[in-house]
Amino acid sequence: MRCAAVLTAAGSGTRLGHALPKALVPLAGTPLVVRAAHGLAASGVVDGVVVTCPGDHLDQVRGLFPGGRVPGTEVPVEVVTGGPTRQASVAAGLAALDDVAPGAGLVLVHDAARCLAGPGLVRRVVAALEDGSRAVVPGVPVADTVKRVLALPDGGEVVVETPDRAALRAVQTPQGFTRDLLERAHRAAADRAGDERTAVSDDAGLVELLGEQVHVVPGEDAALKITTPADLDRAERLLDRS
Ligand code: CTP
Ligand code: MG
User: Fold this and answer.
1) Does residue 225 have its Cβ closer than 6 Å to ligand 1?
2) Is any atom of ligand 1 closer than 6 Å to the C-beta of 81?
3) Residue 47 in contact with residue 126, Cβ under 8 Å?
4) Where are the residues marked Positions MEP for the nucleophilic attack as a site (predicted)?
5) 37-63 pLDDT, tens per residue?
6) Reported ipTM exceeds the 0.90 cut
7) How far is the centre of ligand 1, averaged over its atoms, from the C-alpha of 131 (Å)?
8) CA contacts within 13 A on the Cβ side of 110
9) What pTM, to 2 d.p., does this model score?
10) CA-closest candidate to residue 110, choices 57, 24, 38
11) Distance from the CA of 103 to the center of ligand 2, in angstroms?
């Protein structure tokens, strides 16, 4: 089945604190969004990529994909304006899927911020979809002890519970879905807009709210999310080692 990817790159990168939007920040000379697109294209299982970017950087981002292709490959790229939230950006990307991979039945959603996610990880997610899963996330074991907390009126917080760490996974991207399921999840999310209780930070979370099963495949260290300057340093060290 054909597979298209939405590559989210429309965030501002507040926590990174760079003059450029995060996805345009270079890592060893290459912008994060280009590295991330390359990881998708190099997998050989992605037929097209829709990149979402800040509206005031459309031309700049288009310039990173000469001829509307992922550099060094034949994989088509369409660059569209993202939205005010990551969820809105993914929705904008979904609306443009047919421009890069008409009729694609599988969709990956990937963060430019996870720019070193490798082709092997991409193939693992798509293979799970091809095997019949309708929603797939890469996950890695959690090293920290994680507590659920409750905010107190005085501004402090208290621990409510300590989930069994062995049953926890930190999830990464690319996350993979059958297209009809992901589109349904986003439509349902748009209908719930403004409902604080259902605030979710990833696409699999929207699918879970539909009561659908989400499968986990092994993630990888390289798929770390670059959020702070320290993460950028870590990514540079990972590159040096590879
Ligand atoms: N993203 C997006 N549209 C938004 C917000 C985020 O496409 N309105 C993308 C980012 O570009 C990034 C991914 O979603 O690739 C994950 O978001 P995050 O790591 O939070 O990036 P930023 O929002 O850019 O960073 P910050 O929260 O520090 O401002
Ligand atoms: Mg953000």
Assistant:
1) yes
2) no
3) no
4) 165, 225
5) 999 999 999 999 999 999 999 999 999
6) yes
7) 31
8) 37
9) 0.97
10) 38
11) 30
